[in-house]
């Protein structure tokens, strides 16, 4: 499923944000809690950003 494999391509964080939001709306029922949504979003960030977030 596209949502589970979504990653930032290069440095295009704006496109990642937009695409994640679109997919999260379509598959909203898959995220039973807000924490699940946040975990998936952060997991798709590049390592250099991920380290600053967690």
Describe this structure in words.
It comes from Tanacetum cinerariifolium (Dalmatian daisy). One of its GO terms (molecular function) is RNA-directed DNA polymerase activity. This is Reverse transcriptase domain-containing protein. Keywords: Nucleotidyltransferase, RNA-directed DNA polymerase, Transferase. By secondary structure, the protein is mostly helical. The chain has one domain. Helix content is 65%, strand content 0%. The chain contains 4 helices and no strands. The protein has helices at residues 2-5, 13-26, 34-43, 47-53. The longest helix has 14 residues, at 13-26. The chain is globular. It starts with a helix and ends with a helix. 0% of the residues are buried. The model has no long low-confidence stretch (mean pLDDT 81).
Identify the notable features of this structure and list them briefly.
single chain, 54 residues, mainly alpha, globular
